[in-house]
Design goal:
This protein is of the alpha/beta class. Helix content is 34%, strand content 23%. The chain has nine helices and ten strands. It has a six-stranded parallel β-sheet with strand order 3-2-1-4-5-6, with helices on both faces. β1, α1 and β2 form a beta-alpha-beta unit. The protein is elongated, with a radius of gyration of 18 Å. The N and C termini lie far apart (39 Å). About 8% of the residues have low confidence.
Length: 228
């Protein structure tokens, strides 16, 4: 369990409350952010009253030391802004974002979310389970056999000798603009990297985790994997 890391939950509605329940059960250190002060009456955990899209509020909640941020705000606009803000303030944190509509899923990945869920309570239970039972290094392994909501999934590919992706950086590949999918993790010699700057260069033997719809990943596969 993550007992020595700091997690932030943005939004204390139905999903946020379920996440908090699981965190309390597993002795996870966390802070909740929500604009509704009345919702925090009689609670026994750390919280900040304020707007989860506000930089000063996120800093007050400890964003600069957070290992994981879970965003369950009520509107997709708020979720997108909060995702962008959290990614900018803490580039190496894991971000789970709740999509309130299907159309926002790709936008949230582009905004910097590592994982996106869209089925209210089920999403809350899954996100809470993942972040309370795995470290940053094995979160991707936990997702290995899970098909994500609304047709978004993760597939893994190993770069073999002669791969056209080898020796190219994430930025040079530009998968988001070309295929609307993205690489969210790289397993290199048993060590998983999930905070991938555009300068990160892939190499032969790397196993990459690619997230997108089935159709998007198939387009990616046709260009980079089947020809290799």
């Amino acid at each position: 369990m993550i007992t020595n890391e700091h997690l932030i939950v943005l939004g204390y509605g139905d999903v946020g409350k379920r996440i908090v329940e699981v965190f309390i059960e597993n002795a996870v250190h966390f802070t909740v952010v929500d604009k509704n002060e009345a919702g925090f009456s009689n609670v026994d955990f750390e919280y900040v009253v304020g707007d989860g899209t506000d930089e000063s509020v996120l800093k007050e909640a400890g964003i600069e030391k957070a290992s994981t941020v879970i965003i369950t705000l009520n509107t997709d606009t708020e979720v997108i802004f909060a995702t962008l803000m959290a990614r900018g303030l803490k580039p190496d944190c894991i971000i789970f974002s709740r999509a309130n509509s299907v159309n926002s899923i790709d936008k949230l990945y582009k905004a910097g979310a590592d994982y996106v869920g869209s089925l209210s309570i089920v999403a809350g239970q899954l996100l809470a389970r993942i972040t309370s039972t795995c470290t940053k290094a094995d979160c991707h392994q936990f997702y290995e056999d899970i098909v994500l909501y609304e047709g978004i999934e993760i597939q893994k590919f190993q770069l073999k000798e002669g791969s056209s992706m080898a020796d190219l950086s994430i930025g040079e590949l530009d998968l988001i603009n070309k295929f609307d999918c993205r690489i969210i993790g790289v397993d290199r010699n048993g060590s998983v990297t999930s905070s991938l700057p555009s300068s990160f260069v892939l190499g032969v033997g790397d196993t990459i985790a690619v997230v997108g719809s089935r159709e998007q990943i198939e387009k990616f596969r046709n260009v980079f994997i089947k020809q290799d």
